[in-house]
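Title: Prediction job returns without error message
Component: structure pipeline
Severity: low
Priority: P3
Assignee: unassigned

Description:
Job completed but the reporter wants confirmation the result is attached to the right record. Sequence as submitted:
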Amino acid sequence: MLLPARSSTLAFDPKSLEELARKLADAVPPGLVALRDDLERNFRVVLQSGLAKLDLVTRQEFDIQAAVLRRSREQLEELERRIAALEKGPQK
């Protein structure tokens, strides 16, 4: 089963990126608090850029491929059983 080609960009949950950027900015030492907002913006941009470069698939695409693989394995096991039965020869 062939699936349509997926788009080259994968959308990331902006809330998750915001939260991660905020957590990174919160980890900044107290002496650099004045730079916190600027660092948070920079963290967000770096995270978005880095994640966009990864070759990721959506959960839906993963689940579809997992189902295809599961069905293929079931068919392979059935064929192996049939071959084994044929190799035993005719049942008398």
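Comment from assignee: result matches the submitted record. The chain has two domains: 14-55, 57-92.
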